[in-house]
Amino acid sequence: MEKIGIIDLGSNSARLVIVELFGEGHFMVVDELKESVRLGQDMERDGFLKPSRVAETIRTLKMFKKLADASRVDRIIAVATAAVRRAKNQRSFLDEIQATCGIKVKVLSEEEEATLVYRGVINSMDIPKGLILEIGGGSTKIVYYNRRNMLNYITLPFGAVTLTDLFKDDGISPEAQAAKVEEFFTE
């Protein structure tokens, strides 16, 4: 029996799930924790992860590491998605996590992320053909599947955090705001 910690570092939140693996694909969730870090916030202007968001994420990952150590996990698997994938300061951010938290983070490709979204959803439903829509903080994935096989996917370069940043209340009328949103989605 192996106990692992899984960290998902998204554009909006960081999540830790500690599981015990029993073999043959069976597992039990031992503990889980989710923290809002908003890592992707305000990236749209210059493409850099902001120092305050990086500091909050590092603080959260240190807490996750302490919880994982207290739970005696055998290993930690950590992945990052859209915000880190697009960040111009990705390398320095990942190096800082490794140095301060002792956690090596893998940045998922769009395809790897879509595959994990598919795998996470497909076994929780009995629908033979369809689309899976996953709206993250920094991207939106649409996965097409048939007969329990992933056939295609697309990753759209916006999510809850990026859209909030683009369309935050800047004092314009609701009509002007609606026009701004419509223009964005018709481009």
Automatic annotation (TrEMBL):
Q: What superkingdom heads the lineage?
A: Bacteria
Q: Where is the Ppx/GppA phosphatase N-terminal domain?
A: 23-177
What does the record list as GO biological process?
regulation of transcription by RNA polymerase II
> What InterPro entries does the record point to?
ATPase_NBD, GppA/Ppx_hydrolase, Ppx_GppA_N
The family note in this entry says:
Belongs to the GppA/Ppx family.
Report what the protein is called. Ppx/GppA phosphatase N-terminal domain-containing protein
Which species is the source of this protein?
Candidatus Borkfalkia faecigallinarum
